[in-house]
Amino acid sequence: MDHERVGRAVAVVTAIYVVVLAVWALVLLPKAPDGTVPYQIAALVAGFGAALGLAMMAAGRPTADERRMRDHGLEGWAVVDEVREIGAETEVDLTITVPGSGSYPGTVRRTGSVRYEVGATVPVVVDPDDRTRIRL
């Protein structure tokens, strides 16, 4: 899950909801018929929940770049040569093999800790247009 995308989705929906709530409180609430305010509040809360759910679903979808790699990427394998922790990122040096071409070195950087052992063989997907773009 891409926590950054989910955080942005929640922030955008909340900001829009604050605007909707302000319009409701300043414009619509004074004109509301008697006895309908609890139902209006329930509708506002339900609308916020639905919008938040839809935004999180959209944030969870793969990006266009990830879909392109999934659909058109070349599958292969890689041998882990070295794993380095650099601050909050982990850098993994690989020897990549894609059928139909020779082996070549590559590096993948990931946020957070990556649990790969040196010498392990892992599946990879390589961008056919740019062989330096690798997805584990």
Number of contiguous helices: 3
**Largest sheet, strands/sense/barrel:** 5 strands, antiparallel
What is the percentage of strand-forming residues?
25-35%
Query: Strand order of the main beta sheet, please?
Result: 3-2-1-4-5
Low-confidence stretches: none
Order of helices and strands: HHHEEEEE
Number of strands: 5
Shape: elongated
Question: What is the CA-based Rg, rounded?
Answer: 24 Å
Instruction: Give the CA-CA distance, first to last residue.
Output: 15 Å
Instruction: Look at the helices and sheets and give the structural class.
Output: alpha+beta
Mean pLDDT across the residues is 90
What helical percentage do the residues reach? 40-55%
Describe the protein.
The protein is an alpha+beta fold and 136 residues long. Helices cover 43% and strands 28% of the residues. The chain has three helices and five strands; from the N terminus they run H-H-H-E-E-E-E-E. The protein has helices at residues 3-28, 37-60, 64-72, and strands spanning 74-86, 89-97, 104-111, 121-126, 134-135. It has a five-stranded antiparallel β-sheet, with helices on one face. Strand 1 and strand 2 form a beta hairpin. Helix 1 (3-28) runs antiparallel to helix 2 (37-60).
